[in-house]
Write a structure and sequence with these properties.
By secondary structure, the protein is of the alpha/beta class. It is built from 14 helices and 7 strands. The protein has a 7-stranded mixed beta sheet, sandwiched between helices.
Length: about 350
């Protein structure tokens, strides 16, 4: 009996040693992400390219925070915003800037994040005010990369507003960028959380930051950022010290059927959520949005007479791959600054 006990003890001790070794190995393989206050690196994109990517309009002293408009994957900001938000902001006399991301926002999103960093710094310096950031799809997510890894930008931003942003990736990309397939770098990086190394870094330690208001307007009919239904929509933000509002268009208007492209271009409910955030302290509040919004067909800024042609150009451009980054067989490696120094 004692020999069996000694054998059992030896087996237990050996198992414990092996388990400890495995745990140590697993811990070594687990990335240690940068602390939230780790200083951001110098920008690697040439200054001339960064300057050329930003086009601003409206009075510099408009009496309100300027708005940075950030396009989604495969999109040009003129094609995406000139016929809706930009036209509305022109009518209101607001200052806004359009940001062009390289290769129609299909390249490495880490590099695209540098363009956002420069845009926020430039607009803050020129206006002397904080910046409101409004983006669609990837454009609603990539500003968070800038805020996560360049802490100085956090004091320069008032609102981050995403229209169906890919904050936790999408299972669509999990399928389209599966084994033995090639995708653009941005599509690899927008695979769902737990699959994409980029998403792991983006959402590490905290998703939001104190002093910034975060509004997510998403649609349960989204066919691109999925899943956007149930208790944990992929677009939704959940952690951190920022003030957060996650609002489905169907929570405002139950019959709303906007898809991913509609919420980023002409949907009046998505616009109403964004506008509420832009015109109030704090994130959007669903109860402030008038029920008359549900009877509207097009958001302010969209011209009914030119809408068919404008929307056709928008959707055609979104599906045209001629300006996209070359497809690659794997996700780009995380930048060194992602990890603790």
């Amino acid at each position: 009996m004692r020999s069996r006990g000694r054998l059992a003890g030896l087996v237990l001790a050996t198992a414990t040693t092996l388990t400890g070794a495995a745990a140590t190995s697993a811990a070594a393989a687990t990335p240690t992400y940068a602390p939230l206050d780790q200083k951001g690196p110098a920008l690697s994109v040439p200054a001339a390219q960064l300057a050329a990517s930003l086009a601003c309009k409206g009075p510099a002293a408009s009496g309100r925070d300027p708005v940075l408009l950030v396009p989604g994957t495969t999109m040009d900001p003129q094609v995406g915003f000139s016929w809706n938000y930009a036209r509305d902001f022109d009518r209101r006399g607001w200052r806004y800037c359009l940001l062009t991301l390289p290769q129609d926002a299909t390249g490495d999103i880490q590099r695209a994040g540098e363009y956002v960093v420069n845009a926020v710094r430039t607009m803050h310096r020129q206006s002397g005010r904080k910046v409101d950031v409004l983006g669609w799809s990837q454009g609603g997510m990539v500003p968070r990369w800038a805020l996560r890894f360049w802490p100085d930008t956090r004091t320069m931003v008032d609102d981050v507003i995403g229209l169906s942003p890919s904050n936790h990736g999408t299972t669509d990309a999990d399928v389209s960028c599966g084994a033995s397939r090639s995708c653009t770098p941005a599509n690899w990086q927008q695979r769902s959380s737990g699959v994409s190394a980029f998403m792991g870094a983006l959402n590490s330690r905290a998703e939001t930051f104190a002093g910034i208001d975060y509004t997510v307007a998403y649609t349960q009919s989204d066919e691109i950022v999925v899943p956007n239904t149930g208790p944990a929509p992929s677009s939704a933000l959940r952690t951190g010290a920022g003030r957060i509002a996650n609002i489905a268009t169907q929570a405002v208007c139950p019959s709303n059927t906007a898809d991913h492209f509609a919420i980023g271009s002409y949907d009046p409910v998505g616009y109403a959520i964004a506008y509420d955030a832009l015109t109030h302290d704090g994130p959007a509040v669903r109860s402030r949005i008038p029920l008359t919004t549900c009877a509207q067909v097009l958001q302010p800024g969209v011209d009914p007479a030119t809408f068919p042609a404008d929307y056709l150009r928008f959707t055609t451009y979104a599906t045209d791959s001629s300006g996209d980054a070359p497809e690659v067989p794997a996700e780009p490696a995380p930048a060194r600054y992602v990890y603790a120094r």
